[in-house]
Design a protein that fits this description.
Blueprint: H1 2-16, H2 19-38, H3 49-72, H4 76-90, H5 99-116, H6 119-132, H7 135-146, H8 152-181, H9 185-197, H10 205-212, H11 218-228, H12 233-265, H13 269-301, H14 319-328
Amino acid sequence: MLHEQIKNNIKEAMLAKNTVLLETLRSMVASFTNELVAKNRKPNEILSDPDALTVINRLAKQRKDSIEQYKKGNRQDLVDEEEAQLAILETYLPKLMEKSEIEKIAKNQVLNHLIQDNQVLAYILIFLGLIFEGEIVVITTGVLSYLGVLNFWISLSFILAGGMAKTFGGYYLGGFLYKKYSHHSFFRYLEKRVLFFMPRFEKKPFWSIFISKFIIGVNYLIILFAGYRKINFKTYFKAEIFSTVIWAPLLLYLGFYFSQTALSYSKEISRFSLAIFILLVIFLLFDKLAASFYRIFEYLKNGGRVFSRRRYFCGGHSFFDVRKKRRKF
């Protein structure tokens, strides 16, 4: 209790023979006693901290008024004495925030209220974000959930729903695009990119689809590729379900960690945002590095031979090479 602390400080001031400190502390204790009496309580009781702070604030205001009066009367000796006592009183008061700090907090509150007042829209954007992007959306959602702006479980539900929408939509979109634009160079590019990252896609479609979820930018290609190659939907769906159930909470908790780390660095919104951005960049670089190691692993597992798309599709030829041969006949 603050009241008891000040009483103990009186003993320390007496031992230190600090006259100004001792006088100030005694005036505080006397004011506490007067406050107790005014509240119809016993003088030897202990004042609560809120009441004690109220009394100290009152004493500090009195000192400030006295300083103003003494300055007008050109009594510098009394001004110095009152200022010394005021400095002691202020050590027991909570530190007042500066205007710039208040403005920063206000900006943070405005941002929080903006999202909280439009939570339905925020969840819809999360759902759409999962269809068109993925990792950054989930991590950002984790950051906002940690800050209490969004509900974690509702966010996770919309993330999973968005992931499933992408799973179904992408698969059927791949099949539809192939029927309409089968000769387009996009499919040659798609085949090339998929084989670059997942050279054993035809032999192990489940694990190729599963692993692609954790490589940024690859899962979208895999989904479209699975659609136009008519990969067994049951195998495809199981791989997407299992990978999404692991991937979504993992990235959400990563957002939690990013937010916690950034807050430990600074509560200022600009520095906090910068810290989040740096952590995201580190994550993206790490993901790229992991993808490279995976490629090396596949290369070594193949006996050090470069993967060729001709080995895995259409009986030793790529899908497009077969189409070319058929046109000749």
